[in-house]
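Hi support team,

I'm filing this because I wasn't sure whether my run with adenosine-5'-triphosphate finished correctly. The job status page said complete, but I'd like someone to confirm that the output block is well-formed before I use it downstream. Pasting the exact inputs I used:
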Amino acid sequence: MTNTGWKSVVRKPIYSSCVIGETSSTCDKRFEKYSLMKELAENVGTFGVIYLVYNSKKKHNTVLKAIQYVEGVTEVEIYIICALTNAQIPGFIGYVSHIICDEVPSDWLIGRVDEFNAPIVYIEMDEAEGSMYDLLFVVKPKMKVIDMKSIIFEIIYSMHQARITVGLAHRDLKYDNMLYISAPPRTYTLRNSVKIKASSPYRPLIIDFGRSRIEIGNESDPRFDLPNDEDYLFDQLALMKIIKDIGLLNNITADIVDKFNTKEIIDLDDILELPFFDELREK
Ligand SMILES: Nc1ncnc2c1ncn2[C@@H]1O[C@H](COP(=O)(O)OP(=O)(O)OP(=O)(O)O)[C@@H](O)[C@H]1O
Ligand SMILES: [Mg+2]
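And here is everything the job wrote out:
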């Protein structure tokens, strides 16, 4: 197979609203709208924490990822999550906002954040329900084979769309970095105009762009390393492992796994058209 299929796609220009903004010396005012609900994960990056918060402006819960600002790294993580949301690519966590603080906000956030060296960055995003690990190993007994195929389809579809639209190489695809939310049945249209119905009650959402690379339409910005073929191959192998595990768990002969087992970059559109997904095709 050849990689010209996805490489020839014209990419969108830089998303200027995703370029990180100014830092605030004290962020207290900006934190008034949040109430802390609970800590979801810790030791994210170096001493980072993930919080579930209630956003009183939005009137629902959101998630704050608090990490230490690292020049040249943090800009990229924020830019990528924001660009994916702006490009409306399904299957990625929704970005809401970000705040960069020179001081840890007072009366807000607990313990470990004190160990941070400022500045601290808070990336606000939508809330997901749990990890793919929970879904496969805990919720799974309630799931049908067609649901699992639907999840495999959506993971590949999302990565494919992200690759052809913004040139995303995620570079850290694993169960921990795939969450899910409950969702009504949804439909996708393939390159050959075939419609695919994903009816799983759970929709996968890819997170964590701490190691990701993207083609942003601004190749002169030295902070951004462009993805290379090795990065895309790395994602391809990670996808293969995830699909293999899902297939094994459900006794689905995942004949698509073999297609990933190559040192060439494959056109994910070809994979999405394979008979493996026949059950999902709209009749
Ligand atoms: N939007 C979200 N909704 C619910 N849970 C989340 C969300 N974002 C992150 N989490 C939880 O927090 C964990 C860590 O988040 P994330 O993967 O973004 O950090 P991390 O970058 O992996 O940390 P590290 O830098 O150590 O790799 C996730 O595996 C997940 O369990
Ligand atoms: Mg992670």
